[in-house]
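Usage

Read records sequentially. Each one opens with the input sequence:
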Amino acid sequence: QQRSDPYVMNVLHEHKETVTKAIFRRENGPTLKQVISSSNDGLIMAWSLRPNARPNKFVGHTDAICDVDINPEGDRLASASRDCTVRVWKNAASAQCTVMKGHSAPVKSI
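and closes with the structure output:
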């Protein structure tokens, strides 16, 4: 049974494994626009903070994601994974990405 917590604004469920990082994207000052999360399940989720909005799912890594970050404009994400790749994603529903290969060990940070 889940209890009510007056300090919790929202609980976002979608990842199947441990969340490795969560970051906020702001829009023109203090207004929050998105929460970006990465996980050991190999997924990145971009959660809009609008009511009833569905998250964008970024699929492509074949192992856990160690780190994720967003550029200052908010239109690109970068992710580092235990699959030895870095990916740069378009922060949009299409979730297109560029894969950067060449590491011989897991990439732990951006």
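Summary fields computed downstream for this record:
- The chain has a mean pLDDT of 85.
- Strands lie at 19-27, 31-39, 44-48, 56-58, 65-70, 76-81, 86-90, 97-100.
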